[in-house]
Amino acid sequence: MRRTRVLTAVLALAAGLLAGGPPALAADAPAPASVSKAADTYTWRNARIDGGGFVPGIVFNRGEPDLAYARTDIGGAYRWQESTRSWIPLLDSVGWDDWGHTGVVSIASDSADPDRVYAAVGTYTNDWDPGNGAVLRSADRGASWRKTALPFKLGGNMPGRGMGERLAVDPHDNDVLYLGAPSGHGLWRSTDAGVTWAEVTSFPNPGNYAEDPDDESGYASDNQGVVWVTFDESTGTAGSPTRTVYIGVADKENAVYRSKDAGATWERLAGQPTGYLAHKGVLDAENGHLYLAYSDTGGPYDGGKGRLYRYATATGTWTDISPVAEADTYFGFSGLTVDRQNPGTVMATAYSSWWPDTQIFRSTDSGATWTQAWRYTAYPERENRYVMDVSSSPWLTWGANPAPPEQTPKLGWMTEALEIDPFDPDRMMYGTGATVYGTEELTNWDDDTSFTIRPMVRGLEETAVLDLASPPSGAPLLSALGDIGGFRHTDLTKVPSMMFTRPNFTSTTSLDFAESDPDTVVRVGHVESGPHVAFSTDNGANWTAGTDPSGVSGGGTVAASADGGRFVWSPEGAGVHHTTGFGTSWSASQGIPAGAIVESDREDPETFYGFKSGRFYASRDGGATFEASPATGLPAGDSVRFKALPGRAGEIWLAGGAADGPYGLWHSTDFGETFTKLPGVEEADTVGFGKAAPGSSYQTLFTSARIDGVRGIYRSTDAGASWVRVNDDAHQWGWTGAAITGDPRVFGRVYVATNGRGVIYGDPADPDGGTDPGPPGACEVTYRVANAWGDGFQAEVRLTNTGTTAWDGWSLTWSFPDVERITQLWNGAHTQSGAAVTVRNADWNRTVAPGASAAFGFTASGPAAGATPSAFALGGRTCTVR
């Protein structure tokens, strides 16, 4: 189940990702370059879903407790924040031109200097991603990055992405790093902490395995290359490169290599098993054991056979330590971890056991014997060692009620990331195709007592957003998502209880509501079997499946009439169709080509619109017949988004295009008969509407566009006559070309669709132009510098309500004593002007009862010594400082 990760990305690519490639960047260039400051101050948050995508890698730092990172295939990288039990996004600064750098193929945390972290980025190795990969490096735990461009592509969303880690820091000489490359590019090394890279020409094998060598797209036919790097820390001394290094290669006959002279020469390990790929290689240096997880394919979806092996580094002896006989496997092994406090304890996952569930194995005697997370009693009944608690993310049940031996929620699938905390044997985290699960009672396993597994994913948002709608009443937001269908978001600060169900779509490609009857909603999407269309009469809370016209193979786009009495659907595999009622029967629309994008007029219930290959179409009879508009000069391709303006019949805004043709934003007031291209908007890819500004009668426009040479999210309150960029360089989220909408009830609020970072929404920090008075009552502040490095520091702030009245929202101000500047802040939103800083609450910590506290943290540039502010104020009232 949920095998559509690549499809989501391909859909996004088809929508216009190939418009341009990233420029070449010199080594040591800032990432990204500063191009513009926001002209209005916005705070940015996620509409909470918590997870939603594949997490192929989790990396704990072995030098500092509670420091961990997670990588995603299309949604960037994250750092674990222990104080809030949540993840902090680290790559929101990736811009439009570098969108491929939101795919993270590997991440490495420096245990000798925990402030250093590295990420190997790039989404596709074929031409879906026009840019090359890069290695990002940070000296402040990912708060800021510098970039070195590579001369080849990397594949964070390619087959084999769960193998690894491909990037590793030498534990004895942390200026030395290795990177395993795909596509036949071999092994690469840096000797200056990631600033420059050179191929290790002595390494003999660039790999030869491809999932499907005959795939003409280049996706499945790519050589998966060099897939992991492991250092033997017992073979070196501080300040000198580690002598012994193990390398995993995607080659079923020659999967593991070793160097004993710090990478000068290499040898194939003698006696190694063949016929499998080594997904992971994890070394227990204390006992001299290299553990290897093997599968017959590269994953993350496939894998039918697998083995676990232990290699004795001193004697060269190979031991098959597989927990089940080869004949009994229908899966490969990938997830692999060692308990660093108890090195004889090792765990592994059956990552490709899709049905009835994944399996996790544990050994406390170096693989001699194993126990497993669940077992059959009398088939189909099974007994679990664990209890699943998904109350924080209840949608993980998928609304399912499966028959045994399948259960819901599942233990997982695509479980290629598995790590025991090196400082805490009770804590384990593992990634799945939908979330990060974990436990803090792991050693209960050995006592044969139950332990609880919960989502450990708060703050990690990894959905690909395909469409958005914000109705004038009911839920403030409806989302159409890849892989998990979509949600009705009744509270943006809380995880929805369930995705759209009955039917469940693997990906919802389009949704719409009736403008004058927002309880009427329609959605279409991809599904393995059954109807591709569903209707709701209660604002998306409950759904009824419609019926498909003949030939439908995918969702396409759909539109609801203004009054909810008619629908027009342009599905994949069939032409445009229309219906009255709720899709019990459909009639073919005339005069419009198959594959057209369809929308409805938001005022006239008889009027629908379409666009295909540079031509605009309109229907004035409920979608029965369309006529082509005489308008010319519109974008030639199909990378177009358009919307009709609510409240004004026949008024349309159209965005789209490509670099080699017409590209920008167009406006029509005559039902699409003519369009006027807006001057000054060089490129635009989405358009949406929100509540009019105070004193204005025209709805606010939003677009993801390039204006005056600067890419960003823009707002206009004067019908496009002028524009304000509302995001900044720290908040770009890669590609934002799928959908955008304002909120018809909240001025200035905008919802932005991302390709892997979920639904982002922004609010003006001061939407009414007034002064935030702050909460009443007394306050106390504790300010602590938690970490410091050469040119920066990390601080933690706790704000306590010492008064007698609860706060509903707070705003803390202070001034730094020197040149300190905040680079990243979590659990709040900040603005800074010179030395003056204002931090406002997040949605979830706005209420602070008497005696209770709210905490936030940040990283900043500048000297830590003397950085403690002398005074803090809450709404003009001075706080006590402890």
Automatic annotation (TrEMBL):
Signal peptide, first to last residue: 1-26
SMART domains reported for this sequence: CBD_II
Domain called CBM2: residue spans: 772-882
PROSITE patterns: CBM2, CBM2_A
Coiled-coil portions: none
Classification via Gene3D superfamilies: 2.60.40.290, YVTN repeat-like/Quinoprotein amine dehydrogenase
Keywords per UniProt: Carbohydrate metabolism, Glycosidase, Hydrolase, Polysaccharide degradation, Signal
Keyword Nucleotide-binding belongs to the record: no
A UniProt-annotated Pfam family: CBM_2
Family stated for the protein in its record: Belongs to the glycosyl hydrolase 74 family.
Protein name, per record: Xyloglucanase
